[in-house]
Amino acid sequence: MRVLLANPHYPISETPSPPLGLACLAAVLEKAGFEVKIIDFVVFPYSREFLEDLLKIYSPDFLGITSVTMTFPNAIKIARDAKAANPEIVTIMGGPHVTFHARETLKMFPELDIVAIGEGDKTLLDIVRTYQKNKSLSGISGVVSRSSTGPIIHKKRKKVDLDTLPMPARHLLPLGRYRALNMPISITTSRGCPFECIFCVGKKMGGTGVRFRKPLMVGDELEDIAALNFKQINIADDLFTASKKHCAAVCQEIIKRNLNIKWTAFARVDTVSIEILETMKEAGCCAVSFGVESANTDILNSIKKGITTAHVYRAVEMCNKAGITPHASFILGLPGETPETLNETLEFSARLKDMGLSSGFHLLAPFPGTEIRENINDYDLRILTNDWSQYHANRSVSETRTVSREMLDTIIIDWEEKYNAYLGDIKRRMKTGEADTEEAGQVINLERIVLIYDLMMSGALEKKGAIPFTKKHPDDPGELKILVQKISRYTKFSEKQIFETLCFAKEQGSLKSSKQDGHIKWEWVDYL
């Protein structure tokens, strides 16, 4: 039986990484002897026609789709289009959104057959095996399926032993496209979170305790990833510093193997020490992201964050001492937010900036499954929409009694405008030669990412990437200039910028050419 796994589209501005969850699912299926293919619509343009052709060529029996709340509309469209093309295909969806919105999802969307709840590693395998043997789904844990009386929630599945899982099937992912876009690649060393923040579903998805992988196995996987030449690796654990012992052991594996990698991680300000940060730095950690959320004590207490601003100051000082870049993430519009608490948080962020800490601001999105959403009447909060496509945390979908949607959006828009003005100033100084190398590199890299992404999502190389062979060598710049002329209409950038970017992509091994039927065909290096 064949399985097609799909990653729905979401914007490049969200800094996507290759879909690790799908690679984990694929690895379990492959180990069991099933044929698997992954299609990633984050870096490939989606169209119904493309999906129909893929279903005809690959002829899968199952379509598994992952989604978070923001990507759910795109995910359900994939299921709908697949069912229209092949009514016999079994459609399955997993991820945090449908895990906590399963009954409602199945009732509203007949094109979806099954919802996989929580961790899907073993659940998807059981579903495929059950269909293979023509048996009932009733014996499978961790699913919600259809019946004549409505959706049925099956018994809860036990948490998987992480050390029994095979290495993620990254060979099925279009890693080359992510590398061309200078996006990070991710790995997990644990699952679960011991804390109970009311705006997060991490603990519900990963379990009440934290399960750790053997550091030796983590080291083996990092060694494989290091060979892929990504500029940055994200350790995507909910909380990498949940156990200092585990954290230190993983770092020692990296040091012992002399991997020479740069990586980032998520931490809490009250779970780091100078000793662990120095060990992380020695192992290649370049940045740590802390969820600070608010500067107001009452709000921090009401959301069950369990930290203080004093914790934040100490963590930033320790990062600076260890030589690791600290980053703080704030959530505006939390329950109890007032104009005064907003100013308190913004002023706190400004003081942290003076200490060398960068900050990012998001707006509260009350996701399905969060305590905030489930107990909305207990909080000073009003949910404004259930249009899931708006749940990207960059525009308000809720407001408090004294802080309106407009007030929250204004803060984010102002921040975006200041950042764009900052980039515009660098561009101006680049023209006069005043910008330093680091500043110019930042702008060049951003523009390169946007340009490459435009070309990828327009399918420019697929449509116009073949040019008549002239007697020149494919490496001759003149051949590439002919390509540039053909694809320039697919992006707003100048031919000079396109040429320089494609030259860079070629030098980096992200763009390749081959001779076919009297033509030179240019294409992205999709698989590494």
Helix and strand topology:
Elements: E1 2-7, H1 20-31, E2 35-40, H2 48-58, E3 62-66, H3 72-85, E4 90-94, H4 96-99, H5 102-108, E5 114-116, H6 121-132, E6 143-145, E7 152-153, H7 175-180, E8 185-187, E9 190-191, H8 202-206, E10 211-212, H9 215-226, E11 233-235, H10 244-257, E12 263-267, H11 274-282, E13 285-293, H12 297-302, H13 309-322, E14 325-332, H14 339-354, E15 358-363, H15 371-374, E16 382-383, E17 398-399, H16 405-432, H17 437-458, H18 460-464, E18 466-468, H19 477-487, H20 495-507, E19 511-516, E20 519-524
Parallel strand pairs: 1-2, 1-3, 3-4, 4-5, 8-11, 11-12, 12-13, 13-14, 14-15
Antiparallel strand pairs: 5-6, 6-7, 9-10, 16-17, 18-20, 19-20
Instruction: Describe the strand arrangement of the main beta sheet, using strand numbers.
Output: 2-1-3-4-5-6-7
Tally the beta strands.
20
- CATH level 1 class label of the largest domain: Alpha Beta
Task: Give unreliable regions as ranges.
Answer: none
| Mean pLDDT over the residues | 95
Helix content percent band: 40-55%
**Structural class by SSE content:** alpha/beta
Give the structure's gist in a few sentences.
The protein is of the alpha/beta class and 528 residues long.
